[in-house]
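Quick note —
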Amino acid sequence: MYHEQLDGLLALKIVADTRNFTVAAKTLGVSPSAVSQTIKQLERRLGVALLSRTTRSTSLTEAGERFLSQAGPALDQILAAL
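Predicted structure written out below.
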């Protein structure tokens, strides 16, 4: 269960940084739909939408911004340690 949460957090951070599912998918070595599903699972677990998605843009919701402002630095530290 924790592995899935970390995957979702990493996918969310990359999508938030790049504003692009395709770029995030290439970075993670998976398909854009896999990135989307991973983030949807994270959103379901948290009970809140983290991203606002349209056909032309992707952006963080207010809840997504709050979540990444708290969880993002810890993720950065984990990635740096790895």
